[in-house]
Amino acid sequence: MQPTARRAHTIARDLLSLTRAGEADRLATALVSIASTRGRGPALGDVVGRLVDTFSLAAKDRRRSLRIGEPFTLRLRDTAGLTVRPDRLDPAVAAIVRAIAASVRDDRDTCADQIGEACENADLDQRIRVLAHCLVWTSDFLSTDTTAYPPVLSCLDGSLPHRPQ
């Protein structure tokens, strides 16, 4: 494993540990720090890639153990628990949904393209949103009952474009 990949793996693992431990202040500081990093240390895309890979490996294991043969699916829910279509999400968050699906299908090129779309040329708020979603989705999936399928991903506030009331 190359040094940058090893550091991205360590950062992703540390973020998951902070999430599981409920260390909200330390987690918020880490999210802003990682999302702000440009040019030094692992890039945001590397850390997001590690989280997507972790989610994907867990999904593949779960599908295999449950003997699920149909195409990979997942469900998206808003904060009220209502179903959300991926095309209604912030484009960067939607790109991560597509990256997860591509990773589960072992489509490395599409996965990398979607992670790049989510992380490159994004402002700081979008970068934090992408990282937070990857982290919450991966942590939640790893923490759910191993017979729960398909994955249900909760969309955090700000992931849906503002809709007039």
Helices and strands in order:
Blueprint: H1 3-21, H2 24-36, H3 44-66, E1 75-77, H4 91-104, H5 108-119, H6 124-143, E2 152-154
Parallel strand pairs: 1-2
Neighbour order of strands in the largest sheet: 1-2
The main sheet comes to: 2 strands, parallel
- Using only C-alpha atoms, the radius of gyration works out to 15 Å
User: First CA to last CA: what distance?
Assistant: 50 Å
Order of helices and strands: HHHEHHHE
Determine the number of helices (DSSP H or I, runs of at least 4 residues): 6
- List how many beta strands DSSP finds: 2
Estimate nothing, just give the exact number of structural domains.
Answer: 1
Structural category is mainly alpha
Roughly how much helix do the residues carry, as a percent range? 55-70%
What percentage of amino acids are in beta strands?
Answer: under 5%
| Residue-averaged pLDDT | 89
* Tertiary shape: globular
How would you characterize the overall build of this protein?
By secondary structure, the protein is mostly helical. The protein has helices at residues 3-21, 24-36, 44-66, 91-104, 108-119, 124-143; strands spanning 75-77, 152-154.
Describe the structure concisely.
A two-stranded parallel sheet has the order 1-2. The chain is mainly α.
Task: Offer a few descriptive terms.
single chain, 165 residues, mainly alpha, two-stranded parallel sheet, 2 strands, globular
